[in-house]
Amino acid sequence: MQKYAIPCAKSATFSEYNQAKDYVKHQKPPVVVKADGLAAGKGVIVATSIPQALEALAGIMESKTLGVAGNKVIIEEHLSGKEMSAFAFTDGKTVVPMVSACDYKRVYDGDLGPNTGGMGSYSPPHFYTPELGKIVSETIMEPTVRAMAQEKRPYWGVLYGGLMITGKGVKALEFNARFGDPETQVILPRLKTDLVDIMLAVINGNLNQIKMECSDEACVGVVMASAGYPGSYKTGFPITGLDNLDKDILVFHGGTKRGSEPGQVLTNGGRVLTVVAMGKTIAEAREKVYANISRIKFEGCHYRKDIALVE
Ligand code: GLY
């Protein structure tokens, strides 16, 4: 990103502990300390003071708390602002922006508690404007696809940009080569064009021929989770109420299985269901989701009550 001037957090990478320590001592908190390798979601520490950042660094590089994932660390400037997930289809040349979304990673209302695989999402973000969409496409998504081609690592498929809208502009936090979870559940219902046609155009390199259409309606999705999630949880509890929902409600089964009785559905995971509704406004979609979700029941079920609750 630095090489291609794609806006992102200022950062430096270190394989040597003493050099990383010196660098950290000269930063202004908060400082983000990241293990370079895969660390099962535990590799990023947002340190609010320099001593805390040094402690995190010592843990990763000296005590090897994350094993080889911590052989290299990235020390990054902390970005604050509004977070959003941007999506685009690309065949490596043409970049077609898809609708964007916001997700909720923490388990409890008010963004409290530990991180999860995602407790809900909504689309479009309440702060989304066509001007913001244009900035995202022109400064992040398109330059990234062009950069990858120039690096001789051309990319085609779905590009997901995890972005922060800061006071100093839009910055890229991360990229994924996939749709988001639980963003997929709220962006695909808004897609009017056949996804298969888009994907075939991605594969065949003729995405410039596709006229993609999306609904102007808002979409809200709330995840119902098992008691204890994201910690340990039990499964196998019967789910009731699935046949008592308004007919335009979508229910995505993430962690369920069929029971032995006809039509019976049992819990079979931490994040069990995502309940999704569309509406003319975010508020209307939200109201519909929560009116329906309360009809679905299983032992220990919990879900956030503040998904898409925007001022
Ligand atoms: N919602 C975050 C992700 O899919 O990575």
- Give the overall shape, derived from the CA principal axes: globular
Number of domains: 3
- Over all CA atoms, what is the radius of gyration? 21 Å
User: What's the helix-strand series?
Assistant: EHEEHEEEEEHEEHHEEEEEEH
Number of helices: 6
Q: How many beta strands in the DSSP annotation? A: 16
Provide the structure class: alpha+beta
What does this structure look like?
This protein is α+β, with helices and mostly antiparallel strands and 311 residues long. The protein folds into three domains: 11-77, ATP-grasp fold, A domain (Dna Ligase, domain 1, 2-Layer Sandwich); 82-209, D-amino Acid Aminotransferase, Chain A, domain 1 (2-Layer Sandwich), CATH 3.30.470; 218-293, Glycinamide Ribonucleotide Synthetase, Chain A, domain 4 (Alpha-Beta Complex). Helix content is 22%, strand content 31%. The chain has six helices and 16 strands. The chain has a five-stranded antiparallel β-sheet. A four-stranded antiparallel β-sheet has the order 1-4-2-3, with helices on one face. A hairpin with a 6-residue loop joins strand 14 and strand 15 (265-267). Helix 1 packs antiparallel against helix 2. The longest helix is centred in the middle third of the chain and has 21 residues, at 130-150. It is globular and about 65 Å long. The chain binds glycine. Glycine is lined by residues 103, 118, 176, 180-181, 183.
